[in-house]
Design goal:
The chain has helices spanning 4-10, 17-28, 31-34, 40-68, 80-83, 88-112, 116-129, 144-165, 170-193, 195-201, 206-210, 212-227, 230-233, 247-258, 264-289. The protein has 292 residues and is mainly α.
Length: 292
């Protein structure tokens, strides 16, 4: 029997900021937040849906890479299937279970707000599975960063605002950009760490296609754009300028990446990038909640 701690490791908690930040920022960016009328159960359900989809994509990625044999040699934590800690069937079922929980909570919210949320949730689940699943996974074709920006940025953040307002707003969409960039930075740091082994295994991520140097430059650019995003958001909500304080948390990971760190040092960068996304998200949430 695989222990709870092993399953938790397989769920990759270091990547959870990508799912935890969007509901907070999106809810704070809603008109309901500005008017003091947040429906808290909807916000909580949106958070559960987002986290469950993140956990599902992590298990699905573990399963698909494991059965393809592309996760055998790793620098980061061992995967469940590749390490033999859990059977492929068990990991696949864990992914489906997480999808199922997300679906249940999502349908409840959709029934209260709009059935369009079912479309968005269904598309998110398909994107989660086909990242490394199916015959032609888009993650192996260098499209992972684009889809992460769309679904863990635009869809998750603007969708969380939609859960409150039942409509899309300019602020909800604008606030989703730095959130999406944070998720992209997480994926870049992960793929940069795995670049040598991914290339050897034939996993053609964007990092593999671009090469080491350009990938490091891309990480730096994405992080810079993320931490300076409050400058344009302040045109809509001045208090979002608080987000600029996150610059202090961006210096170390960017410097480490730019200086050419490899292997285990990039595991530290992944954790630092997650912390950075949390800080940016927290500061933007506070700034947005303080209102115009």
């Amino acid at each position: 029997m695989t222990g709870l701690r092993t399953w938790l490791t397989g769920a990759r908690p270091r990547t959870w900021p990508a799912s935890l930040v969007p509901p907070f920022v999106g809810t704070a960016a809603s008109d309901a937040a500005a008017n003091g009328g947040i429906v808290w159960w909807r916000a909580a359900f949106a958070l559960i849906v987002s986290l469950c989809i993140q956990i599902a994509v992590n298990y699905a990625n573990d399963y698909s890479d494991g059965v393809r044999g592309t996760d055998v040699a790793r620098v980061g934590p061992q995967r469940l299937v590749a390490s033999g800690a859990a059977s492929p069937t068990a990991v696949r079922n864990a992914a489906f279970a997480a999808f199922g929980v997300a679906a249940v909570f999502g349908i409840v919210v959709a029934a209260a707000v709009s059935w369009w949320l079912v479309v968005a949730g269904g598309a998110s689940m398909l994107a989660a599975w086909y990242y490394t699943g199916g015959r032609r996974p888009y993650g192996y074709r260098g499209l992972g960063e684009l889809f992460v920006f769309i679904f863990f940025g635009l869809v998750a953040t603007a969708g969380s605002a939609f859960v409150q307002d039942a409509r899309l707003t300019m602020l909800g969409i604008a606030a989703s950009v730095p959130v999406g960039l944070g998720s992209v930075a997480l994926l870049i740091s992960n793929n940069l760490r795995d670049l040598p082994t991914d290339a050897q295994a034939g996993k053609r991520t964007l990092a593999v296609r671009m090469g080491d140097g350009p990938t490091r430059a891309m990480y730096a650019v994405v992080v810079v754009l993320m931490v300076f995003s409050p400058m344009y958001l302040s045109l809509l909500r001045p208090w979002t300028m608080l987000g600029l304080a996150a610059i202090a948390f961006a210096v170390a990971p960017v410097r480490t990446v730019v200086r050419g760190a490899t292997g285990a040092a990039l595991v530290v960068v992944l954790a630092a990038t997650g912390r950075l996304q949390i800080v940016v998200g927290a500061l933007l949430t506070v700034g947005l909640a303080l209102g115009p």
